[in-house]
Amino acid sequence: MIPDYFNDLTEQVEIGVWNVFGTTPSEIKKNIEAIKEWLPTQPHLPGKLTDKQIRAFLMMGRGSVENAKPKIDMYFTMRSLFPDIFDDSHPFSKRILNVNDYIYLIPLPKLLPDYSRVVIMKLKETEKDPYALDPGAAFCQLINMVDVRFFEDLCARHIIIADLKHCQVAHCTKLSPSLIRRCYTVCQKAYTTSSSGIHIINAPRFFDQVIIMIKSILSPKLAKKIHLHKDYESVLDSIDKNILPIEYGGTEKSLDELEGRF
User: Fold this and answer.
1) Are the CB atoms for 252 and 108 separated by under 8 Å?
2) Sheet strand arrangement including 103-107
3) Quick one: 101 exposed, middle or buried, by C-beta within 10 A (0-12, 13-18, 19+)?
């Protein structure tokens, strides 16, 4: 990722984000020091984390030291609990690079006025074999993207837009309830962040059944945040045009350009 990808992280934005969580940048600095003092007492955890890394866990914990501690613990513990997910998850491994041929996973550079970050997840139009898309690898790449965001980004919550215009039945053949359950556990325990909603647009008719399966596994609270839209105008019309890529009628760079920068 180029250094200035998230180009609006000003001091005022930092104040605004932490204000959403009922705290201040100066209080967060104190909380970062408190976690630094706590880390050496946990021999199973890395002895040192950078200030940005600790800040990320405080974001997940809504600014609270006590909420952030279990997030740090589970972040590192999950990697040993789910080796099938995290083994071979390096961004430049063949398994993960293959995902990039099928899916855009892109956080948009500019924040919404309420300090939310929009994330675009879109299946690409490609002639590659749809059966070769590994949903487990796709989840790993999503986690890689989230890791970069956690340590470089600052936002109060996120909005996910999943564009399934090019989704085929073949893309979903390996999407088992067991995999969904394991991925959900990882997200719930180690990557809990505030979300305004997951908006699915351009979904083919068969995907209704996939959504029913997914919602049956998720908590009722999270399941209610998944919205299936018949058209995307109702979702995108509420987002400033300068934030959206040109593919969605905005003035931001194209998805290909943003993918290259991120």
Assistant:
1) yes
2) 103-107, 116-123, 157-163, 195-201, 226-228
3) exposed
Cα separation of 218 and 168, whole Å? 23
pTM of the predicted model as reported, rounded to 2 decimal places: 0.88
Q: Could you read off the pLDDT of 191-211 as tens digits, one per residue?
A: 777 777 889 999 998 998 899
- CATH superfamily entry for domain 88-261: CRAL-TRIO lipid binding domain (3.40.525.10)
Structure tokens of 80? 């040993």
Torsion, Cα of 130, 134, 139, 141 (10° steps): -80
Q: What is the pLDDT of residues 107-121, one digit of tens each?
A: 999 999 999 999 999
Q: Is the pLDDT of residue 7 over 80?
A: no
Distance in angstroms (rounded) separating the CA atoms of residues 196 and 191: 15
2 pLDDT band, cuts 50/70/90, is low
